Amino acid sequence: MFAPKKGELLRVAVAGGGWAGCAAAVELARQGHHVTLFEAARSLGGRARGVEVRGMELDNGQHILLGAYRDCLRLMRQVGVDVDKALLRLPVQMRYPHSGDGMDFVAPRLPAPLHLMVALLRARGLAREDKLALARLNSAAKWMGWQLDNDVSVAELLDRFDQTERLTRLMWRPLCIAALNTPPERASANVFLAVLRDSLGARNRAASDMLLPRLAMDALFPEPAGAWLEQNGGALRSGVKVAAISPDGDCWRLELTGQAAGGASSERFDAVVLATPSAHSASLLAPLPGMELLSAQLAGFDYEPIATCYLQYAPGARLDLPFYALEDDPAQGRWGQFVFDRAQLDPKQDGLLAVVVSAAGDAAALSREELAAAIATQLAQDLQRPDLAQPSWSQVITEKRATFSCTPALARPGVETGLPGLVLAGDYTASDYPATLETAVRSGIAAAAAIHAWSTLPREKRSLSHTHGATAPDSLQ
Looking at the domain covering 11-53+219-301+408-476, what would its CATH class be? Predict the structure, then answer.
């Protein structure tokens, strides 16, 4: 076991085995606390996990990470993941199939910001006015410190800085939808600017790199994190749901359900991290004193779906690049936004393509068969490959609550609940980032830090006997 720098060793329950919960569990165990990680499902990963499809280990959604995801990368290394082997690192790029009317923007491996200047000069498919517009927005964003005093929509931001229709259509809109999973007309400009700041505007070129997972998402961090936890004195309880939580003397009592819990049981812990989905955390908090406002806030988020369409073709069917951007147009039945050649990530997935549809509310109204057929037709047209119109099989996986709708000036809670020893973790917590894996991991780290800081207080100041006088956290008052 690790030993904490100071403070009392606590028995801590982490409810939820997604990326936020796994990060909190690893950080708390590293600080020396006795951690039990509960996950209602049989596997870890939450909304970024592996699924078995026709004998293959795929993801419930295709992901791209960024080099700026420093905490994700640090914790992957902490639990023994070789990130250089687990991730395909590519320079930042927006590349459309050459046969279409798209653009080809790819940064060379030069120091920042020279790499983006050269990429802009070399970019194909952008006219002079498009390049000037991009440079104008980049310069203005730096001058503003990558933040507006009053948040607006991304669409309004782009209009304010005279971005061209072509640049908006081929670069800003797909980047916004991919990063925030919210259309520009409804997406937060400040959150979008924060993403640009830490990628396109980063001082370190590597921060702008795009990282494509070679492993299934649960194998990339959650499963190694669970194994690391057990190897370092913690416990992993999968198939066990935290159904209720209540004060019990100086501890918290968790009511547990599920076959792995023996039906129904209860256990006591000194502290609890709620890393369950926001709606479930809201239901757990609702009966607790002083938690009415926070519970209502967690239950009030709107959500956006993401669909991933897997298309299997004959062995040897490959793309020229690991991935391409696609121009979507739902009115014309064109739903795909990015297509990935899975064989270039995992040789065992030869002939398999993955197409992502973010902000997929309208696409979700189609049947899986209709959506897959439309995407296959789109690929055949865009890549000028008639063979792609007829995959041997397809599988559409839609995560209906993939992320919250990242709207302007959206109020997001901090990790502190206002109750002693009870904190939140999740990609919905306060951050200048959208609902990304990095946001989830950072929230888990922040939750662990809050619990550890609480453990250093004198025992009388950590008493749960004061919970009946609890007030809402500062962010809600």
Answer: alpha beta
